[in-house]
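Q: what does this look like with calcium ion bound?
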Amino acid sequence: MKLILLLLFATAATVLADVPSYEDYWYVYADAQRIDLPIGHASPLVTDWDGDGDKDLFVGRFQSGNIMVYTNDGTNDSPILAYSGLLQAGGTNLSVPSG
Ligand SMILES: [Ca+2]
């Protein structure tokens, strides 16, 4: 009985210790306008796309599957995002199918 209680306590302590905490949400702006997707289900990716040392933003869109590219004209601490268009290859918009 003591062993079971000890295991339960240890399990509960582990679960409680792993509870994540989240910050409040915030909006992301590009070209001084809030990035807003009409359908939602955005898939963001932050990476240094152009190799200039600051993080850029990619946003995959549900339904069309297109990927919007926002380059960072600011810094990593104070990003200033500018819409650069849809991600393309060979002049064609790339699309990632859903489903
Ligand atoms: Ca960059």
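The first helix runs from residue 2 to 17. The chain has one domain: 23-93.
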